[in-house]
């Protein structure tokens, strides 16, 4: 603090140095805020350095999620190591951003480094309760949307062999899952397509939702989706308690099998998935058992069909045996009836043929008697007709005309009937009853 003088007299302070002011703040805090306080807050940052833990605390507006207060906090190595072990043992998780915590702190203000809360204790049960509350809020929201049981209502395909796997490609759980399917004792064939995704940390939700969108574009290529994590710390499961991820799984058009890999922890994804198993190998066993059940069902159906066909064949054989005994008797009876009928028809046919032959003989004999008289009459008529024709031919003989004093003039062998047919120079031939002459037209 600096004082001014005037005429040898000291004046009231006019300003402080920063150090002086900060020391005054520190003294005020130490005097007015003695003791330790339990404070609830959300971790926006939590990092370790040289055994110390440095945290950023935030309180958000529940309605708008807007930060209402922020502060820095530190936990020194001597306190942090036992507190971390206690917290992880009880919760099964590491302290990480986004977590709600209840911390026991005291204020510390340093002239050079400013203000921070020093953490001396942490209540794991508060964090567990907050995570359970958040999980229940997500589940309630899904129930209100009517999608909590939606994926469970999808029927599992009978032949569930085309598997879309969501996992980290380096995860041991994925390798165990793949090996168990490929080496199944029944020789079943599975088609496994890996869709790599981040399975721990802050990017779990975004990564898996993106992968599910890829699988959705190829929905027809797969029978189901298997989400595999396997191993790792329980704290990494917080990414699977996500509303957006749960909504995607619940609304997915293919059955989703979750094999996230923790015996005692159940995430929201486990709850909304069609089927949840504890480990990736359990997911593989589920697929193998499903196909085994289908195989057994088909085997039972084959046996039933075989038994049904065998019974039907036995019934038909009995029926054929009965027919084989009845048919000869029926054939003998039918044969006797047909032979009798044939004999009757033969007699009728013979009688009809004999009658037809007798009638034909009578007609032939009658015709034989009539033919000579008819032939004589026909010859007489034809002779008379020939005589009449001879007289007509003789009457038309040109010689008779010539004998009566006529002549016939011809031009080129044709009789001339009109002088207009002639032209000068034409040579005519004239025939008389006795002799003929030639002449030329002038």
- Strand line-up in the sheet with most strands: 3-4-5-7-6
- As for the CATH topology of the largest domain, it is Rossmann fold
Based on secondary structure, the structural category is: alpha/beta
CA gyration radius, whole angstroms: 64 Å
Contiguous runs where pLDDT drops below 50 for at least 5 residues? none
- The domain tally reads 3
**Number of helices in the DSSP assignment:** 9
Global mean pLDDT: 85
Distance between the termini: 182 Å
Per the principal axes of the C-alpha atoms, what is the gross shape? elongated
Note the beta-strand portion. Answer: 15-25%
Main β-sheet description: 5 strands, mixed, barrel
CATH architecture of the largest domain: 3-Layer(aba) Sandwich
Q: List the secondary-structure elements in sequence, H or E.
A: EEHEEEHEEHEHEHEHEHEHHEEEE
What CATH first level of the largest domain would be assigned?
Alpha Beta
CATH homology superfamily of the largest domain? Cobalamin-binding domain
Q: Tell me the helix content.
A: 40-55%
Q: How many strands in all?
A: 16
Describe what is shown at a glance.
The protein is of the alpha/beta class and 442 residues long. The protein has helices at residues 18-32, 77-91, 124-145, 172-182, 204-217, 243-250, 268-272, 280-395, 398-403, and strands at 5-6, 9-10, 37-49, 52-60, 67-75, 100-110, 114-122, 162-167, 191-196, 224-228, 256-259, 275-277, 408-411, 414-415, 427-431, 436-440. Strand 1 and strand 2 form a beta hairpin.
């Amino acid at each position: 603090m600096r004082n001014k003088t005037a005429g040898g007299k000291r004046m009231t302070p006019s300003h402080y140095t920063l150090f002086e002011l900060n020391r005054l703040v520190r003294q005020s805090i130490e005097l007015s805020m003695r003791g330790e306080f339990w404070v609830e807050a959300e971790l926006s940052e939590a990092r370790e350095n040289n055994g110390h833990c440095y945290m950023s605390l935030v309180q958000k507006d529940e309605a708008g999620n807007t930060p209402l207060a922020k502060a820095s906090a530190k936990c020194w190595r001597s306190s942090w190591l036992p507190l971390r072990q206690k917290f992880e043992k009880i919760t099964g998780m590491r302290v990480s951003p986004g977590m709600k915590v209840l911390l026991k702190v005291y204020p510390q203000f340093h002239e050079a480094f400013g203000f921070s809360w020093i953490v001396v204790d942490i209540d794991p049960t508060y964090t567990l309760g907050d995570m359970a509350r958040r999980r229940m809020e997500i589940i309630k929201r899904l129930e209100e949307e009517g999608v909590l049981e939606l994926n469970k209502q999808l029927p599992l395909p009978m032949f569930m062999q085309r598997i879309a796997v969501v996992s980290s490609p380096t995860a041991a759980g994925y390798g165990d899952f793949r090996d168990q399917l490929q080496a199944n004792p029944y020789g079943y064939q599975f088609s496994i397509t890996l869709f790599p995704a981040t399975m721990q940390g802050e990017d779990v939700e975004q990564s898996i939702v993106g992968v599910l969108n890829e699988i959705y574009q190829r929905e027809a290529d797969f029978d189901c989706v298997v989400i595999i994590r396997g191993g790792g710390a329980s704290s990494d499961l917080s990414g699977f308690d996500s509303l957006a991820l749960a909504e995607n799984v619940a609304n997915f058009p293919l059955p989703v099998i979750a094999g996230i890999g923790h015996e005692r922890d159940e995430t929201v994804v486990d709850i909304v998935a069609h089927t949840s198993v504890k480990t990736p190998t359990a997911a593989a066993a589920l697929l193998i058992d499903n196909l085994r059940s289908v195989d057994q069902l088909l085997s039972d159906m084959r046996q039933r069909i075989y038994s049904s066909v065998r019974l039907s064949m036995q019934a038909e054989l009995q029926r054929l045996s009965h027919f084989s005994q009845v048919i000869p008797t029926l054939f003998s009876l039918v044969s006797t009836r047909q032979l009798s009928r044939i004999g009757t028809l033969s007699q009728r046919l013979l009688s009809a043929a004999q009658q037809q032959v007798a009638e034909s003989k009578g007609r032939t004999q009658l015709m034989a008697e009539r033919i000579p008289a008819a032939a004589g009459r026909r010859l007489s008529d034809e002779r008379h007709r020939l005589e009449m024709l001879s007289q007509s031919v003789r009457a038309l003989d040109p010689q008779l005309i010539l004998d009566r004093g006529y002549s016939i003039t011809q031009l080129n062998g044709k009789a001339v009937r009109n002088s207009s047919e002639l032209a000068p120079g034409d040579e005519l031939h004239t025939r008389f009853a006795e002799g003929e002459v030639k002449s030329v037209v002038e």
